[in-house]
Amino acid sequence: MASSTKKSVLIVGGGAVGAIAALNLEVGGLAHVTLALRSNYNAVNEHGFDIKSCDHGRVQGWKPSIIRDSIPDITKESLPPYDYILLCTKNIPDIPPTVVDLVTPALPRINTHTTLVLLQNGLHIYRPFLESHPQTLVLSAISMIGSEELSPGKIIQDEGDKLIIGAFPNLNTNPSTSAAKCFIKMYKNGGKTDCKLGEDVLHDRWRKLVYNSALNPICAILGLDTGRLRLAADGEVVEHLVRPAMQEIVDAAKANGVLLDEGVVQKMIDADPLQSYLSPSMLVDVKKKGNFLEHENLLGEPLREGKKMGVEMPTIKMLYYMAKGIQWRTMEGRGLVEIPPKDV
Amino acid sequence: MASSTKKSVLIVGGGAVGAIAALNLEVGGLAHVTLALRSNYNAVNEHGFDIKSCDHGRVQGWKPSIIRDSIPDITKESLPPYDYILLCTKNIPDIPPTVVDLVTPALPRINTHTTLVLLQNGLHIYRPFLESHPQTLVLSAISMIGSEELSPGKIIQDEGDKLIIGAFPNLNTNPSTSAAKCFIKMYKNGGKTDCKLGEDVLHDRWRKLVYNSALNPICAILGLDTGRLRLAADGEVVEHLVRPAMQEIVDAAKANGVLLDEGVVQKMIDADPLQSYLSPSMLVDVKKKGNFLEHENLLGEPLREGKKMGVEMPTIKMLYYMAKGIQWRTMEGRGLVEIPPKDV
C-alpha cells in the first residue's frame, strides 16, 4: 500500500518514456506508482524491466509498486482517485481510442482531485480535455529524454531525462503553479533528473516542435538517425529539408505570438550529439512496422495554426501529407482500411 | 553466329527491362542479341530466364543468342562492332561507373557504325556521350513497360511493352530518322509490342517525367504502389503531393519551350490501373535495400532546368533532397561513405 506521505501516481504507458518516469518517481521516494502497460505487460510482469539508463545505471528485474495490464476503472474497482495521472502513451488523435477515452475510467466522474500530466508531444493536446473534463487541471510535461524500448521491457536510455512542467491554460481551473511545483518536487527528489517549471507552456511546446516537426518526420521518412541526417549528402539534407522545416515552425510560432530564441533552429539541428546517432521516436515507429505516427500533433496542428495566420509552410505541409500516406499504409497493414481486390 | 540479314544488338543490362527487350528482339527474328548481365548472370546462365509476360506469355528456360557476364571489349576481343547497343541499366550519374565508362569498351574507338539506344529515364542522358563519343548516333527509347525481376532471372511483366524511339539532338551527326525507323522495324517484327517513332524526343521525355518525377519518388518514399497511393488518406496524398509535383514538371517543361497536352497530369495520375497495384521502379529499388535511385535524372535534371527558367518547384525540390538522403543511406550501407564512430 502507498504510504500516506506518498502521492499516488498512475502512469499510463510503460514504453521507453513511461518506464523511465516510473523508475525515477519511485527512486525519488515521494510517489507510489501504478503503471498501466499494454503490449509489454507479460514481459514486465514475468521478468520486470531491464533498464540501461544514463541517469539510473543498470536496473534489472525492476517493477514499480503496482503494474496492471489495463487502465483502472476507479469507479468499478472502488479505488481512491489518483493524485496524478501521467500520460506517457503516444497521442494519435486519428486512431482510436483517443487519449480522453483512454484515461476517463481512471478519473472521478466529476474530477477536481486528480491532476493530469501529459508527457506527450504536440501543441494543443490539452484541448480535448477542456470539453470532456473541464474541471480537471492538466499539466504539460515536455521531455527531452532519449530512450528506446529495444524489446518488450528492455529499455535503453542514452540521453538524460529533462522535463519541463507547466499548466496548460484553462479558464475553469485558473491553474496556479502549485500542482506543477509539487510534481516537480516529487520528480526531482531522487536527484537523478533535471525537472523544472516552464512558465510559458505554449512557448515551450512550440520550441520543442522546432525539433519534433522537422527531425522526427524527416528521420522517419529517410530512415536516418539525427547524426546520419547531418552527415547525409554533405549536409544538403539538413540545409534543404531540416532547416526550412524548422524555420517554418519558428515563423508559425511568431505569427501566433510566440517568439522563440534567436538561433533556435541551429540549436535544434545540433541538439543531439552527432556521434550519438540517436533515433527520434518517429523513426523508431517507422522501423517497427505497425506503429502509428504522431503526425497530427507534430505536423498537422502547427500547420493549421500557421495557416490560420497566413504563414506559408511548404516543407511542413509536404511532411504532413507524407506522414499521412505512411499512416494509411500502417492502417492497411493492420487491416483498418479495405482496398479493392487486385485485378488478375 | 548472327545471320547476315540480322542486325547485331548488344543489350547492356538484363533486368526487368533488358530481358523483355532481348526476348522481344529475338522473337522478331531480325536481331541477333548479345545480352550482358551482371548480378543475375549465374542464374540465367544455369537456368535461363523464367518470364511471365502479358506480351509473350510464359517463357521458361529461355536465353538470347549470347549471354555474357561483362560488357565486351570489342578491340581486345577483336569483335566486329555492334549495329546497336541498347542500354537497359539504371542511369545513375552520382554513382560510378558512368554509363559512358560502362559502354565505351563495346564501341569502336572512333565510332560511326554503332547506334546507341538509351532505354533509360531522364531528360538529358545523351549529353555525356556528346563529349565522349561526338560522332555516335544516340537514340532515345522511352518505355512504358511494367515489369519486375522477382528474383535473379525470374521476371514478371504485367504491363505491355510500349516504346517510343527518336534521335537525341546532335549537331555532329545530323541525325535523320532512318536509324530509329530501322530499330522500330526490328523491334516490332514479332508483332507483340507497340513501338513507334517519336518526332520530338524532348517533348516525349518531359512527358514521361510527369509520371516518373512524381510517382516514382513518392511511391518509393511512402512505400506505396500507384494503386494504394491513389487510395491513401482518401486521395489527400495525390492532391497534396502527386498533383503539385506533376504540375511543377509541366510548368518547367513549358518554361523550357515544351508544351505538354492539356490534362496530362490527370492522365498520369490515372495511368496505372488502380487495381493493378503497380510498383514504380524506384519503389522496387527502395524495397530491395541496396539498390541506388535514379533521382539525378528524374528529379535533379528537371529541377535544374526549371530553376534556370525561374520556375518554382518546391515539391520536386523536396523530393530531390529526400532522394539524396536515401541514396546516401544506401551508399553508407554499401560502405561507400565513412562516418565517425559512435560515442559510447
Automatic annotation (TrEMBL), chains A, B:
One MF term in the entry's GO annotations: 2-dehydropantoate 2-reductase activity
This protein's record includes keyword Oxidoreductase: yes
Listed GO CC annotations: cytoplasm
Segments forming domain Ketopantoate reductase C-terminal: 200-327
Catalytic reaction(s) noted: (R)-pantoate + NADP(+) = 2-dehydropantoate + NADPH + H(+)
Keyword Kinase belongs to the record: no
Entries under InterPro entries matching the protein: 6-PGluconate_DH-like_C_sf, 6PGD_dom2, ApbA, KPA_reductase, KPR-Related, KPR_N, NAD(P)-bd_dom_sf
GO BP annotation list: pantothenate biosynthetic process
UniProt keyword annotations, A-Z: NADP, Oxidoreductase
EC number: 1.1.1.169
Pfam families in the cross-refs: ApbA (PF02558), ApbA_C (PF08546)
Residue ranges of domain Ketopantoate reductase N-terminal in the record: 9-169
Role description: Catalyzes the NADPH-dependent reduction of ketopantoate into pantoic acid.
Entry similarity comment: Belongs to the ketopantoate reductase family.
Protein name listed in UniProt: 2-dehydropantoate 2-reductase
Organism: Didymosphaeria variabile
